Amino acid sequence: MKITVLGLIVLPLGVYLFAKGTRPLFWATVWAIPFFDTIILFLPFAPVRPFQYLAGLLMVRYVINMLVQGQEPVVRRSSAVLVALGFILSLVASLFMPLLLSTPIYIVPEGHVDLWKAYQNPKLLRFGLSNLTQLAYPVFGVSLFLTIEWSIWSKRDLKRVVRILVKAFFILGGFMVLYQLAYLIGIEAPVDFLFFLFQGEADASFSGYNALAGLIRAHTPAGEPGYTGLYYGIVLSLVMGLSYGGYVKGWRFNRQLTGLILVSIVLNASTTGFFSVVVILGSFIVVSLLRRNGRVMARSNVRTMVQLLLVLTVTSATVLAVAQTFGISLVEILVTQHLEKITEGAGSGAFRLKTIFYTMEEVFPKSPILGVGYGSHRALSLIVFLIANVGVVGVGMFFLLNGVVFVHVVRVMNKTVDPELASIAFALSVTHMSLLIILMVKGSVGFVSGWLWLFLGLSEACYRLYRSRERSVAIQ
Predict the structure, then answer these.
(1) % helix / strand / coil in the chain, to the nearest 5?
(2) Helix, strand, or coil here: 431?
(3) For the ranges 218-222, 300-304, 458-462, which has the lowest average pLDDT?
C-alpha cells in the first residue's frame, strides 16, 4: 500500500468532512469527479481515486444517518432504481458463466499493460479474483448514481453542480497551458512535480504523437489526452445546451464560453475530443427534435438549431483562419493524424478495431446470453466489453437503465412550466446522450470514472424535483 502526496491531504480531509455531515461530503465528491486521473492511495489490487474515497464516505454516512437518526432511505422505489438493481443482478449472474461453460474460450484478462501482446497470446477463460474486483466498479457506479440523485435537494443544487463542472474545465485548461509551456521551454520539472502530487509518479509523458504543430497533446488530472478531450466535450454539451436551448428566461452561460471550449478541444488535439464535438452536435439536434414544450420556449427548434450552427460555423471558420495564418492546416491534420488511426493502422483506432473483431468472432458467440463473466475479457470499446462479458442480458439492462433515465429527463423538458428547470433538463439530455455514445467506443472507463453515473444521478434528480413540484401543485 502506498499513499500519494495528494492522499496525505485528501484522506484526513475526508475524515473531517465525514464528521461535518453529508452536505460537505457531497460537494467535495462533486469537485473530485472531474479529476479522474488523480490517485490518493495504491492498494495491492487497484488504485483509489479521490472521488471514490469521498463518495464511499458519503454512502457510509448516509447509512449511519438512516440507522442512527432514522433518516429516510437513500434508495427509494422507482423504475430507475429497479432497473439499476436488475442491471447489477445481471452482472452477478454472469460471474457463474466461467464455471458453467464447457466450451474452451480464449480471452484477454484485465491487468495487461501491453494489450497488443495480450491479444496475440489470449488466455483460457477461468474464474478468478479479478472478476470480483472488477465487479466492484459498476456496483460502486450504481451506488454513486443513487447517492447523487438523493443528494440533489433543489434546482439550486443542480445549478451549483454545473458551475463546479465548468470551473473544473478552467482548472484543467490552466494545467494544459502549463503543460504546453513546460514542453515549449524544455523544462519538465514543474509538470513532473504536479504528476508526483496527483499520482505519486513524476512522469510528464511528453510525446509529439498527433501534435498540433508545435503544441503537444496534454495529459491533465482528467486523464490522458483522450479523456481530457472527453471531459471538455462534457462541459461543451452542458454549456451549449444551456446557452442555445432557446428558453424564455432560461438559465444561460456566457456564449463566448462555447468558443473557448472549442478552441481548447482543438489545442488538446485528441481524436476523442474531435469525435465528441460531432456527437454533441448530433445529440443537440436529436434532443431539440424531441421538444414539445412551447410554453417555455422563446424560439422554435429550427431557429435554435440554425443559431447554433451559425455560431459553430463562425467559430470554426475563425479557428481555421487563425491557424492558417500561422501556417497550420487543421483540415490536413484532421485527415492525416486522426482519420489514419483507422484507415492506415496508426494509433489506437486500428487496434481498437482488432479487439472488436476478435471479441465478436471468438468470445461473444460462445456465450451470447450472459457473456463470459463480468471482468473476464478486456476490450477497448464499452459496448463490446459489455456484450462479451455480460451478454445480451447485461447489455439490455444497461441500455434500459440509461433509457429510463433519459425518458424521465426528457419528460421534465417537455412538461415543466419552469423555464430554468426546462433548460437544465435540455442540457442534461444532450450531455447524457453524448456521453453515452462516446463511451460506447471509448472503453470500460465508463464504469471506472464517475462521469456517466454523475449525469444519470443529475438527470434522475431533475425528474424527482419536477415530480415533487407537480405533486405539491396538485395538493394545493
Answers:
(1) 70, 5, 25
(2) helix
(3) 300-304
What distance in Å separates the CA atoms of residue 32 and residue 249, rounded to the nearest whole number? 31
CA dist 111 and 161 (Å) reads: 34
Q: Which of 435, 384, 442, 382 is nearest to 405 (CA)?
A: 435
Whose CA is closest to 379, among 152, 140, 71, 134?
A: 134
Quick check: 272 and 226 in contact, CB under 8 A? yes
* CA geometry: angle 237, 467, 422, nearest 5 deg: 30
pLDDT at 72: 64
Give 159-181 pLDDT, tens digit per residue. 999 999 999 999 999 888 888 78
How many Å is the Cα radius of gyration of the chain?
23
Residue holding cell 512522469?
203
Q: Indicate if the pLDDT at residue 473 is higher than 60.
A: no
116 C-beta neighbours (distance < 10 Å), count:
10
Which is nearest to 110 in space by CA: 451, 370, 373, 435? 373
Strand 106-107 versus strand 123-124 pairing type: antiparallel
User: Grid coordinates standing for 280?
Assistant: 454533441
**Residue pair 205/218 in contact by the 8 Å Cβ criterion:** no
Q: Three cell numbers at 108?
A: 484477454
Cα separation, 203 vs 219, whole angstroms: 10
- For residue 351, which amino acid is it? F
**Scanning the structure block, which residue is given the C-alpha cell 427509494?**
76
Nearest to 208, CA basis, from 354, 318, 333:
333
Spatial CA neighbour of 235 closest among 4, 420, 89, 434: 434
Ranges of beta strands (E only) in 151-265 are none
Q: Please, are residues 219 and 179 in contact by the beta-carbon 8 Å criterion?
A: yes
Cβ-contact 273, 240 below 8 angstroms: no
- Buried residues in 295-315 as b, exposed as e (16+ CB within 10 A): ebbeeebeebbeebeebbeeb
C-alpha cell at 14: 475526508
Neighbours of 45 (CB within 10 A): 11
Give the cell for residue 388.
462479451
Report which residue type is found at 345. Answer: G
- Region class of 186: left (phi > 0), else alpha (psi between -120 and 50), else beta: left
Residue 94 contacts residue 370 (beta carbons within 8 Å): yes
